[in-house]
Amino acid sequence: MKILTIDTSSNCSSVALSNGSILLGESILGEDRSSSGRLPEAVDKLLAAAGLAPDGLDALATSLGPGSFTGVRVGIAMVKGLALATGKPTLGFSSLAMLAMNLPHCAYQVAPLFDARKQEVYAGLYRVTDLAQPLREDVVLPPQDFLSTIDAPTVFLGEGALRYRELIERTLGELAIFPAWHCHLPRAAAGAALALNAAQAGNFIPLPLLNPRYLRASEAEIAKRRRDAA
């Protein structure tokens, strides 16, 4: 099954092209807020290198969040546009599960963290074998609140883990483990593995239901609630 997978949930956008369990190509656009604007070119180059047209794909996949509100929307919008143009089915997955997939068969539980700003993190807790299995639901909360729930050796990764590394180490001591630097970047290729598993299980998402999972209200929604309450 040939799947084009897009992730724009953080500063580091990426796109991957896979055929079953074979990675045909991946483009990592770097930690740059403008990287999502280069996605169409990255997609075109990956398809061209593989000798494929969009119609030659079997499915399209994207991370659904949590993460950057604007970024998540960009990835989903691109997948929806391609799906409308080609008629191909769509798949979605948690961006935190995708990040946890950087540590397959990890001996410890894995806590992927994105910086949610406002002194909060998007946080998940996973057991990772071939795939990332959630030990609890993804959440958004102050990092100290998340750390208060950790009582076993845990590998922390992601931009949120790096930002709050001092707090994590001070709070958890030897229970906190940090992997090598290259493990902290989200990769669409890891999302492609989640997408393939979902496709094999028949868990496609109808286009009207392919929506962001932000975990908290946007600034616009918060402002509207305040206006309505006033």
TrEMBL record:
Domain of life: Bacteria
One GO CC term on file: cytosol
Domain Gcp-like: 33-223
Pfam families according to UniProt: TsaD
Annotated Gene3D superfamilies: 3.30.420.40
GO molecular function: transferase activity
GO term, biological process aspect, one: tRNA threonylcarbamoyladenosine modification
Keywords linked to the UniProt accession: Transferase
InterPro entries membership: ATPase_NBD, Gcp-like_dom, T6A_TsaB
NCBIfam families xref list: T6A_YeaZ
Name under which the protein is recorded: tRNA (Adenosine(37)-N6)-threonylcarbamoyltransferase complex dimerization subunit type 1 TsaB
Organism of origin: Geomonas silvestris
